[in-house]
Amino acid sequence: MPKCKSCKIQFKPNFFNQKFCFSNDDCRNEAIRYAIERKDKSFKKQCKKERREFNEKNKTRTQKINEVKRVFQAWIRERDKDLPCVSCGSSEAKLVDGGHYLKAEVYTGLIFDERNVHKQCRKCNRFKGGNELNYRDGLIKRYGVTFVESLESEKDKKRTYLWSDEELREIKEKYKILK
Description:
Blueprint: H1 25-57, H2 61-79, E1 96-100, E2 117-121, H3 122-127, H4 132-143, H5 145-154, H6 165-178
Antiparallel strand pairs: 1-2
Helix pairs in contact: 2-6, 4-5
């Protein structure tokens, strides 16, 4: 037999989740306060859920792209974890990014192109503006001139591209699974 949450006396419950015995006013008042508190918690939980759903549904294009970028770049860092920085060749960097050879801000169609994104130390990616000349040399060393030239030949065709919500969802799922 359970004990009353208020008076701590054992009682026979009338229903399966009864927590109070209702034998005196203190127990009844405590039961009412408890019920109001529980309702308050569930109301707050419901509001939180609705706010989360609203925010998810009303994300801007940039927010959606940035969310997919995080998953994609995490996959890139995992793919290239045993390789040095593509620009400077350093293997010592503790913090690395998924750096774009052809800038993501300029060539939106190449943001999620695996050929365009490689492991890059933060120093090269953030503080040296991508270290583009050395990045190109690093790509040539890894993959050859034809690889780099084929990527560069596509850049103008893919300069501006608007990713659909469906495409972004598919890309995010693909790289989540691969990770």
